[in-house]
Known about the structure:
By secondary structure, this protein is α+β, with helices and mostly antiparallel strands. It has two domains: 7-64, Roll (2,3-Dihydroxybiphenyl 1,2-Dioxygenase, domain 1); 77-145, 2,3-Dihydroxybiphenyl 1,2-Dioxygenase, domain 1 (Roll). 26% of the residues lie in helices and 31% in strands. The chain has four helices and nine strands, in the order βαβββαβαββββα. It has helices spanning 19-28, 58-64, 86-98, 134-141, and strands at residues 10-16, 32-33, 42-46, 51-57, 78-82, 102-103, 108-110, 114-120, 126-132. Strands 5, 6, 7, 8 and 9 form a five-stranded mixed beta sheet that branches. Strands 1-4-3-2 form a four-stranded mixed beta sheet. A hairpin with a 4-residue loop joins β3 (42-46) and β4 (51-57). It comes from Rubellimicrobium roseum. InterPro entries: Glyas_Bleomycin-R_OHBP_Dase, Glyas_Fos-R_dOase_dom.
Amino acid sequence: xxxxxxxxxxxxxxxxxxxxxxxxxxxxxxxxxxxxxxxxxxxxxxxxxxxxxxxxxxxxxxxxxxxxxxxxxxxxxxxxxxxxxxxxxxxxxxxxxxxxxxxxxxxxxxxxxxxxxxxxxxxxxxxxxxxxxxxxxxxxxxxxx
Length: 145
C-alpha cells in the first residue's frame, strides 16, 4: 500500500483576450469565482474545492510563463473535467454552447464505460468533459481493479 498523499490544490492558468467575456462563459457553466483573486486582468474560477482555473489576460499570463505564450488559435493544454454520467457530459457541453463555447466535434465513446466530448471556451482554451465507470473500464481492459 502506498502512503496517503496530503490534500493539494491545482491551479490551471489559461490565457484570455477578454476577462469579462470569460467570466460570463464560466458563470454560465455554473462555476463559482473567488473574488479575492479576481480583477480586471484575472479571474479565479472555482471548479471544486481543490481545482481552480486562473483565467489571465494574455499580458499577465505571459508574465508568469518562461516561454512565449501560444499564439491565439493554437492549443497549449487540454483541461479534462469529469462528470458523474454521460448525460452530465452532454448537459455541460450544451451549457458551454449556450454561453459562447464551441463544440470541437470530438466525441469519444468506449463501450458502456467511457464517454467524452470536447468544447472550447470563447478564447479557444479546450475543455474535455468526460465520464468513466472505472470498474467497467478495468474489466474491459483486462486489468485487475
